[in-house]
Amino acid sequence: MNAPDMNGTAAKSVVKQGYARPLDLRHGRVDMSHGGGGRAMVQLITELFAKHLGNEYLAQGNDGTCLPAGQGRLVVSTDSHVVSPLFFPGGDIGSLSVHGTVNDVAVMGATPLYLTAGFILEEGFPLADLVRIVESMATAARGAGVQLVAGDTKVVEQGKGDGVYITTTGVGFLPDGVHLSGDLARPGDVLLVSGRIGDHGVAIMSKRENLDFDAPILSDSAALNGLTRAMLDSGAGLRVMRDATRGGLAATLNEIAHQSGVGIHLDEAAIPIAPAVDAACELLGLDPLNIANEGKLIAVCAAADGDRLLAAMRAHPLGAEAAVIGRVVEDGNRFVQMQTRFGGRRMVDWLSGEQLPRIC
Ligand code: MG
């Protein structure tokens, strides 16, 4: 399904001519015909996807979508979402598939404008759940100021999928003069995080393992493009921004250390973490530094601009708990090390295995 299938012209005529009854979005289920390229597929697209996600671009009705270019260079990022469970405290696969890709474009310093989405649906999946997911995507896209401009739907036989997988691609534009990259961290720079870490991974785990906490831990899934805009507008000498998703803070910082050929010293006491998340990690035997976030970013900036950047982040709702958590040091070994709360020092390494599969 390309843009023309979401156009709906064909489907309208199908419905008008009485070839099809409206989809039973309450009790119906996805069946193989919904991916078959025929009337059933057009109906699913028209009555569900285009209804919630439609816009002037999707309505063009051609094999590809023609879009106005923004100012500056093009930035593109793509991400597949296989999170399990599909619905979790604080979000679902629909909102996550928008936020994850918007954030990857945003942390490049770009303004995300467009999204494409590919859906792989499993035969038998309840249409009511699909409606919830698509509505959630639409809300997330509106909130982030991006439009879905092309899409595709495929259906696989029962037992060969896991409900829904969603791949999204984001397109944004990077203003001239903005250059952020993982290889730009320099000794002396300061390192900031936009807020509490670990919420997303623990929210998923608690749902998966049926764990009850006094207060439910919610995923932090959120679009960060407003925050990144505020950070860029602060005029601080930003060198790197990166969202700390799969692999958590530890993976993100090791990536930067390796790309830039530097070491990083973290201060554990400065890293914001919710007490409930800390306690849950203890219980589950997880290290919060390895846990995925879906609404947090880390930033590296020139030391002289650290205060200015921190103030700009804290002035934004999604950066209210931002903190300086460490600094970049000269280190040929490119080690990430942490001063612990107890005064010791430990290495912060990449995970060697998979601590939390299907977290996003
Ligand atoms: Mg990323």
Defining traits:
single chain, about 350 residues, alpha+beta, 60s Ribosomal Protein L30, Chain: A, Phosphoribosyl-aminoimidazole Synthetase, Chain A, domain 2, 2 domains, 13 strands, globular, binds magnesium ion
Say which molecules are bound, naming each kind only once.
Answer: magnesium ion
List SSEs in N-to-C order: HHHEEEHEHEEEHHEHEHEHEEE
* Broad CATH class of the largest domain: Alpha Beta
Distance between the termini: 24 Å
CATH superfamily of the largest domain: PurM-like, N-terminal domain
Which percent bin holds the helix content? 25-40%
Mean pLDDT: 92
Note the overall shape: globular
Structural class, judged by helices and strands? alpha+beta
Return the CATH architecture of the largest domain.
2-Layer Sandwich
Q: How would you describe this structure to a colleague?
A:
With 360 residues, the chain is an alpha+beta fold. It has two domains: 4-174, 60s Ribosomal Protein L30, Chain: A, CATH 3.30.1330; 190-347, PurM-like C-terminal domain (Phosphoribosyl-aminoimidazole Synthetase, Chain A, domain 2), CATH 3.90.650.10. It has helices at 3-7, 9-16, 39-53, 93-106, 127-144, 199-208, 225-233, 248-260, 275-284, 306-314; strands spanning 73-81, 87-88, 91-92, 111-122, 147-156, 164-174, 190-193, 238-243, 263-267, 297-301, 323-329, 336-339, 345-347. It has a seven-stranded mixed sheet. Strands 1-6-4-5 form a four-stranded mixed sheet. Helix 3 (39-53) packs parallel to helix 5. It is globular and about 70 Å long. Mean pLDDT is 92; it is low at 7-19. Residues 104, 242-243, 245 line the site of magnesium ion.
